[in-house]
């Protein structure tokens, strides 16, 4: 095996998906603790101390205790290299989150044991299903009251339409939580409270049919045996091929806050989840062990460092090896660039990188030339597919407090739109600027970032827009005719693409019926 093939085989690149408040930020911290990346896990929302969760870094995130932007963290674990992509946990960050899911090979789904499957989880699973991404599941908060575990598994299967195979099974919950039983390997992992902030040695009881196990479970023993018989009769067994095909999810139980069960999940990612996979480009399929370098940009983040007014472009390496100072071709512009200062991420800690392989995420300094969806290679013309824009669901008209700052406003909005969390539209018939987002919190984010980073104050007004559709038409004459008729509702997006802003659902349906040669698209590939 070549050194490159060995490095690729060591990589595991995955994202965490969950509904807000299911404990995702806490599990991220504990995963880093497993990789010894942080010595003490900083409790999220801890009022007494000023330590914020290691992966939440933008000002507004610090105030609200939510992870708005996708962080990337790399850490070693069991002779493997883990690339963890933390996705925005707040309800409405699906566009950024969606694109993050295009850059990973597997995902960890975190569910709140008291609540089960929640709406955001369903939306994110739909995205994973587009690429049949393998999913590992973690049912969290066993140190609190949870719903019946069998009921939770049934819900995963019914709502998320994926087979659920329990790997561990909880012994009690809340104050009676005693640990978990490993179904296949017949041993108990004992839970001891109060070790949330450090790595502890795990106590294991071999065999359920032992005096030690009977003593540990006490009066619960007989009832637990009965429950197990039910579980083993009713549940699916783990099958690795079905897992890799995205048809079955292994399920683990634990408490991220109590730092229990998180290592079982990480072991599953190392043992079962795929190494970096081949990626499809327009021209061909690219294998990770190919010698020549290639990668694509899935996210752009402004001002990771308040001291530096820069933007970082996040790249997923698809093949070859990055070496400091190497030359790359920026395929869209056709320019060759020398990259001497790519970054590796440990949340907000940025370090210069010497080398990186397929599956790794690296950061490139971007002075406005790099866009989401761009491909970099060692000269070959490649365009990786499947990194779309989504039609926003909410719209506001932007109003400027100081009319003399309209240039800064446009510049700020375009730069923020390039990050892909919001979209900006310039109507053809007015000087209005319209902002579109997938969730309401994004409008607050844009206003506070415009104020902090561009010194521009703005407010919003409601506007009658139901949805946006990107216009495509191969018949130039028809397109011109359509453009003349629909001019009141046409706009250009931040990338200069023609967009129809439909005032109502009925209007959109009528227009689609009236103009059969014009395609009204709800997503747009980044090209």
TrEMBL record:
CDD domains: RF3, RF3_II, RF3_III. It comes from Pseudomonas iranensis. It comes from the Bacteria. The gene is prfC. One of its GO terms (molecular function) is translation release factor activity, codon nonspecific. Keywords: Cytoplasm, GTP-binding, Nucleotide-binding, Protein biosynthesis. PANTHER family: PEPTIDE CHAIN RELEASE FACTOR RF3. Residues 9-277 form the Tr-type G domain. Its main location: cytoplasm. This is Peptide chain release factor 3. GO terms for biological process: regulation of translational termination. It is found in: Cytoplasm. GTP binds at residues 18-25, 86-90, 140-143. GO terms for cellular component: cytosol. Belongs to the TRAFAC class translation factor GTPase superfamily. Classic translation factor GTPase family. PrfC subfamily. Increases the formation of ribosomal termination complexes and stimulates activities of RF-1 and RF-2. It binds guanine nucleotides and has strong preference for UGA stop codons. It may interact directly with the ribosome. The stimulation of RF-1 and RF-2 is significantly reduced by GTP and GDP, but not by GMP. The keyword Membrane does not apply.
